[in-house]
Amino acid sequence: MDMKKFILLITVMTVLASCGSKDRGELVGVKGKKWHPEKPYGMQLIPGGSFIMGKADDDLAGVHDAPAKTVTVRAFYMDETEITNSEYRQFVHWVRDSIVRMKLAVLADEVGLVPEDGGIGEYAFKDADTANMSVYEKYMFENYTGLGPTGYEGRKINHDVDLIFDTAEYPDEYYTEVMDTMYLPLEESYNGQRTWDVKKFKFQYNYMDIQEAARNRSVKRKDVILKEEIEIYPDTTVWIRDFAYSYNEPMHNDYFWHDAYSDYPVVGVTWQQAKAFCEWRTINKNSYQKSKRGSAMVNRFRLPSEAEWEYAARGGLQAATYPWGGPYTKSDRGCFMANFKPVRGDYAADQALYTVEAKSYEPNDYNLYNMAGNVSEWVNASYDASSYAYISTINPSVNDEDNKRKIVRGGSWKDVAYFLQVSSRDYEYADSARSYIGFRTVQDYMGTQVTKNSNNK
């Protein structure tokens, strides 16, 4: 091709490109869909800002553990209450039902049954019939499905058919066989009741260790994508183990599953289980967003950092002792402001013996309930007595994966007033569950930055 023809070709291509574009050849940027921030259900927007984190100088013991330091956090959403039993049961049921559906689909595949056959065939993998697949779905099915240890990775289970839990209505022997594997064996049952084998309620998720990827730029991406599998059922025996020589069997038997306690904060959950809940909540919401074609994916839910928790607990009040201000735990009418252990161990003095409903007492100025008392709360931070000395002053976060001592904040129904102070720090081991530790989640705010001194809402 000679030079004249080459120049002519480039000119024609340029003209065609300009004619087919709405930008008139200008640098206008790539524009996506207009973004409209949506407040997550049950959460409050915490505007970003600066605050003095840590203890006052007159707390001679605590000041060594949490010296005062001015830090700044970005805007985020936070659950207005602790995660309740009812909300955590939604997670447990989702995991249980997903495992049952997978077992049903695998057995249907093994015996060669499809939806038209009825019975367990109705629970066959959705890809059992490839006729209704999109081009993309068919390509992914033919090229990637089954690439894993079980051979069933990537196959879609059927959520359209309701599960059957009444033994009198089981559709066939295959269905009965699968359900039988989910219950405790007969020799471990009593009074004619078979209960779920909750050790089989395991949640799997993958995540990327972004911190490691940023520190080690030579590491391969696949090496920082990690997999977790964890049993997610709360440890109900905490009500017995936490209190020697004490009768708490009713709480062990009823607290998590009975509807009488649905709106009470979940307890008996480890730090790892709290993190797993956050991952599930993200997956659950984004699955719904994906089903609404064109809807944007949401930011991941997570545990708050220690600084975020304290900032939110203060409710915009600088130098406050408690979320309501302070320094007293009673109102001007003589009523206790939180659920804790007052008056030298008189648990009932605040009209609560154990936990109370998550929406009890008055919320703080960010409309968050029980940021002091009721249950202590896991945060995404590892305990280091000297961490305040070296943390960043912007969005400080210290979470050493090798340090299994994880921070809990806010105090609980069995704690004295000192641990209810917004600046008090305590810790528990990540794999430990307690009858007085729960959690709440946060989500990063996307869009225009919102600060406490801004007029934006």
Automatic annotation (TrEMBL):
Keywords: Lipoprotein
Gene3D superfamilies assigned: paralog of FGE (formylglycine-generating enzyme)
Leader sequence residues: none
Superkingdom of this protein's organism: Bacteria
Record-level Gene Ontology MF annotations: formylglycine-generating oxidase activity
Record domain Sulfatase-modifying factor enzyme-like: where: 43-442
Sequence intervals crossing the membrane: none
NCBIfam families, sorted: GldK
Protein name according to UniProt: Gliding motility lipoprotein GldK
Taxonomic lineage: Bacteria, Pseudomonadati, Bacteroidota, Flavobacteriia, Flavobacteriales
